[in-house]
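Predicting holo structure, zinc ion bound.
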Amino acid sequence: MRLIDCARQARSHAYAPYSGFSCGAAVAAGGKVYSASNVENASYGLSCCAERIAIFRAVTEGQRNIDAVAVVGGGDTPPLPCGACLQVIAEFATDDIPIALACEEGTTVTYRLEQLLPCPFQLEQGGTS
Ligand code: ZN
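Done. Tokens:
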């Protein structure tokens, strides 16, 4: 199954009673696919995006190198990952990995991580505090 289809399938499990925005994500790492949906909470700040949950699933199973990411959302335009998710992707990926984005129906657009997050935070940069 294509990575984008794994994300689409994961979207069906989204728990999004507050925003109504159901999202699914899938990451390829170590020859495996890890997928997840977004999970919201009545205490909004505790909600978590599908991308981060999928990555955390991969990491907790020993993966440290993500090869590709796919995200599927509702609406008319492909969902862009939020800044927090992009930073988490950057922690475990090179800046040229593909990030495929799609609506439930319609075309898929693909970016490279460096296009969506050109200047990720790096602890070694220093000088900011
Ligand atoms: Zn996010």
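The chain has one domain: 3-116.
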